[in-house]
Amino acid sequence: xxxxxxxxxxxxxxxxxxxxxxxxxxxxxxxxxxxxxxxxxxxxxxxxxxxxxxxxxxxxxxxxxxxxxxxxxxxxxxxxxxxxxxxxxxxxxxxxxxxxxxxxxxxxxxxxxxxxxxxxxxxxxxxxxxxxxxxxxxxxxxxxxxxxxxxxxxxxxxxxxxxxxxxxxxxxxxxxxxxxxxxxxxxxxxxxxxxxxxxxxxxxxxxxxxxxxxxx
Length: 216
What we know:
Blueprint: E1 5-10, H1 14-24, E2 30-36, H2 39-49, E3 53-57, H3 65-75, E4 80-85, H4 90-98, E5 103-106, H5 110-122, E6 127-128, H6 133-141, H7 149-155, H8 158-168, H9 173-180, H10 184-198, H11 203-212
Parallel strand pairs: 1-2, 1-3, 3-4, 4-5, 5-6
């Protein structure tokens, strides 16, 4: 029997928390190991129980979900954190990614998107609720200073920069290939070049770099 994926739930609304759990317990590979309703409890339980993933609400008492995510990521970056929120605001999304969240799902879409988001995040990729990607991508194109001149001209090619941006936005390799009309193998090659040139080790490093350079 394969090892079950341990999930910690953090939300201060009992009815929503119950509904969330009912979705997850139907999946044999998932095990809900705890339920908390404050950000402070989320941090404590995450560090004590070491779940594979925390499903984190943004608005909670004592410590909000953003701060709780930041604290968990600083202490144990191997724990994946999927943000759940009612807000589709781009600023929330950027902040969540900046402080270490691996995914961002709107509460209204939990029934249809949550399980896909969990699987994506546990593969080491970032998950962004689909309807948020276009606005985030468009806003990134409006930035006048995407990269400083050295990085833009001397380190990354224009196509490498495009691939980097799409990776940071949570696109899968297939989606990047379809968007840029290239093969998946070519996407892999560009990703390897980007990580080598920028001395990055994992996908989350790409997200942080893109945020720092205002690519997303």
